[in-house]
Amino acid sequence: MSLLSVEDALDRILRSANPPQLGELVGLNDGLGRVLSQDIPARVTHPAFDNSAMDGYAVRHDDIATIGAEVTVIGQSAAGHGFKGELKPGEAVRIFTGAPVPSGADTVIIQEDTERLPGNRVRTKFVPGKGRHIRAAGQDFTAGEAALSAGDVLDAGRLTLAAGMNHASLPVFRRPRVAILATGDELLPPGSAPGDDQIIASNSFGVAAIARENGAEAIDLGIASDESDAIAAKIAQARAADADVIVTLGGASVGDHDLVQSTLLACGMTLDFWRIAMRPGKPLMVGQLGTATVLGLPGNPVSSLVCSLLFLEPLLRKLARLPGRERMATARLASPLPANDLRQDYVRARLSRADDGSLIAHPFSRQDSSMMKVFAQSDCLIVRAPFAPEAPAGGACDILRLR
User: Fold this and answer.
1) Strand 245-249 and strand 177-183: pairing?
2) Helices (H) and strands (E) in the chain, counts
3) Distances (CA, A) of 110 to 47, 56, 76, 77, 127
4) In contact, 105 and 87? CB cutoff 8 Å
5) Cis peptide leading into 47, omega within 30 of 0?
6) Which tens digit of pLDDT belongs to each residue from 113-163?
7) Average pLDDT over residues 277-285
8) Alpha helix locations (H) across 255-365?
9) Which residues contact 282 (CB under 8 A, 6 or more apart)?
10) Which of 5, 94, 237, 305 is the most buried (most CB within 10 A)?
C-alpha cells in the first residue's frame, strides 16, 4: 500500500463520518459547547411589559414639551414594584431602570435633565423625544418565537438567551464518544514506579484532551498488553460503550510485536489505509469497525498528538456538528530549514512577534517524535510540503498553531 498524502487521508476519514443522531436534554449549566438538536421557541415575551431604560421620571410628553415645564410627582415605580395607578395630565412618577412604565406615561426623562422643586414638583431642563428611554414590550422576543435554531452551538450569549426564554434545559445532540486504548507491555500508568524496560504511558491523556476540546466524550480504556486476546477484550469494551471513534495508541504497524491491526481485522474491522506521507506520524491506521471509525495512532507521543490534531480533531468536529477550527497561519522563519523529502513535515517551533506585528517561527533544533518537552514548549508546527526546497531565514512559511 503506497503512502497517502495528508490531504487525501483526511478526505477519506471525513467522507464516511456520520454524526450521531440521538439527542438528550441538558441543563443550562451543562450546555456550553453543545449543539441544539431542535429549534427553541420562547416561552415568554421579553420585555414582558414596557419598562424604563434609565432612572428618571415617567411622564406624558405633552406635559414636558417645553424646557422649564413643571409636573407633580405622585409616586414611584421600581423593578418588581410597579406603580399601580394611572398618570393624569401634569403628573409624573419617579421611575428606576427596569421598572414598569405606568399607564398613561409615554416618555421617560432622565433625572439629570430635571430639577427637583419643593412640594414634589419637578422642572425640566431638557426636552427628550416622545417615547425616549422606554423599552417596548416584546422588543427583544415574543412568546412562541424560535429565537434559537437547531444546529446552534451554545455559548454564553445563547445560554443567556435560552434562560431568558424560560428554558431550564435544552435538547442537544449526543456528544461523539471516543474510546482511547494504549497498547504495549512496556507501559505503566502515571504514578507507577517503572521497572527495567518500562515507561510511563502519556499519549492517551493528550489525545483525550484534544477529544474533549472538540466536543467529544473521552472513554479511557486503559492499557492493553501485547497480546491479541487482551487487545480484543478492550475493543469489545469500546463497542459495548457505543464508541463513535476508537483510537489505539501504538502497535498499529506490521512488526512482530505490532498486534493492533491484525487483532482489529480479526474483530471485523475493514482497513482503509495505514501509511501516510508525513513526519511525524507515518504509520497511521484508519478503518471501520461496525459504525465506529478506527484511528490507529503511532506510539511516539509527538506523533500521536500531531496525528490527533490533523485527523482526530476535524473528524470529531464533524461528528459533533461543530464548525471547523482554523489553525493555519503564515509566519517568517527565524532560521533556515533544509530541503524536504517525500513526506510532509511538521516542524516543532515557538513563535515570537516582530516589531511590525508579524509572526516569527523559531524551529527547535531537535525534532525527535518522542520528545514531549519540545512539543509542550512549541507554539506551532511549521508545515513543510513534500519535496519543498531549502527555506532561507526570513522566508515565509505556513504554520499550524497549537495554541
Assistant:
1) parallel
2) 8, 26
3) 20, 4, 14, 14, 10
4) yes
5) yes
6) 999 999 999 999 999 999 999 999 999 999 999 999 999 999 999 999 999
7) 92
8) 260-266, 301-307, 313-319
9) 3, 275, 276, 298, 343
10) 305
